[in-house]
Amino acid sequence: MINYEKRGYLNSNFKLFHLMDEGKQSYDYHYHDFDKIIIFIQGSVTYRIEGCAYSLEPYDIILVSHNDIHRPDIAAHIPYERIIVYLSPGFLNAYQSDDYDLSACFQKSRELHSHVLRIHSMEKSSLYRTLTNLEYACTHDGYAKDLYCQVVFLEFMIQLNRASLTNRVQYLPPSTGDARILSIMDHINSHLTEDMTVDLIAESFFISRYHLMHLFKEETGYTLFDYITEKRLLLARERLRTGISVTDVCFSCGFKNYSTFSRAYKNKFHISPSETIKEDTILL
């Protein structure tokens, strides 16, 4: 099984970086425990997220949810500049009401299978001005810096969601050679807890087993079996962190026996399922 690595760590509600890379940059497929917002500034980059590929233009906004498997393909010898915000998945939950939800832009992204928002004339938009203020707030010391950064970040998220809800941003359509792949990925993520085999998926989508496996690998970069196992392990870790017993998590996440689950989990996360429960109990 391909072992997609977790990259980056977050020990606060959010964190902002302004990065510029020059020279050859190469990334493997990976995932994060946190959500990520990228504001692309310059470079020649194709971003690949969950089977979709996007050719980026300056000021495109990329939304990557936690556990999304992704990577950028970066042209050599062209500077790659971007602003990245790491965001705790639970942070925005504290800012929900019957009238608003600051995670709505991520939800719409998932529904549309579109991870990239394109804003024309970004430099003239209120969103750009708020982004500039946010970067300044996060990189300059001053009275109540952390609180001020949080206030400006919330303003940025409000502006982003307003732009999304009023269609002032374009959710780019996913670029994939075969629309069936997106439907298959939806099917997989909706049935992780159920019995699911390559043969059953192939039968459900009226496609031969061989063609399905070949097409999935060609379109997404990972094998069908590896993708299913990866998503089940990520789901298992989330459930373990809520205090569900190891045995219940094993069988509720589609694994047929404990030894297979435990071995795959240790190989993936480098700790045992029971150690995950203890680790998060200590953190609490």
TrEMBL record:
- Answer whether the UniProt record assigns the keyword DNA-binding to this protein: yes
- Domain HTH araC/xylS-type, chain residue ranges per copy: 182-279
**Which keywords describe this protein according to UniProt?**
DNA-binding, Transcription, Transcription regulation
Q: Which Pfam families match?
A: AraC_binding (PF02311), HTH_18 (PF12833)
Q: Does the keyword Transcription regulation apply?
A: yes
GO molecular function terms listed in the Swiss-Prot or TrEMBL record: DNA-binding transcription factor activity; sequence-specific DNA binding
Q: Which domain of life is it from?
A: Bacteria
Q: Quote the protein name from its UniProt record.
A: AraC-like DNA-binding protein
